[in-house]
Amino acid sequence: MGKENRKLSWEELETQYRKRIKRLHRTNSVIFWVTLALAVTNVGMLLVRGNNTWEEIVFRGGQYLAMLLILKAPSFLRKRFKVDVPAALSVVILLFAFSALVLGDGLDFYGRFTWWDSVLHGFSGVILSFVALWLIHVIMAGNDKYIYFNKYFLVLFLVMFSLGMGACWEIVEYTYDSLSGTNTQQFMASTTGSIFTAEDIPLCGHDALRDTMTDLVLDLCGAFAVSVYGFIQHNRLKERYAFAVRLMEIDREEMGEGKN
To answer: Does the predicted model carry a pTM greater than 0.70?
Structure first.
């Protein structure tokens, strides 16, 4: 006979969740040391080869440095502003940043795999939706249920927040490309990498807008997917509101003890 199904008690769920957070802390540490090892190895190889420009070396190294700073961001927010980032959200953001900065730019996955940027933008819409939920909780400081319980406003907020942040990111990329001479908006026809040479050919006319518009559409699709799920499951999620708040309290306790 199979094991009898039963609902776990709150004490059992809390114990499991605390163990999960400790595993997430270890994941954070692994990401840190992997990033550091790749930074030393990759930048060292660029210096030894001698056929790379200083601009490229500084750019690659800067992506690793940015990743290391992002790894320390949750600790900084907690100590400086008394703001706690949930452990699961923190690790998801770190994994996304690792994929974009370390793999995408540091190891040139953008140049090697033409689909890498599109995949990340699709996931960014999903991640930004959960960031929006976290921000509601932080800003409303305990009154967030009034927003969570209105599913129409919640769907609108998630979609608009994700699309707005995606548009802001495109502005950042455009500004960075203009100042640094990079190709983060992928306006080159001959390469999708962030670094290009004088031999590379730029896109012209309508094609030059393709990457920016594709990224925004993917951001929208990711946010829309989360919003549709939230809309369909709203009554069930609303019933678990108190449970979710308690999990955030556990996050706060455990993140205060964890090392970042």
So the answer is: yes
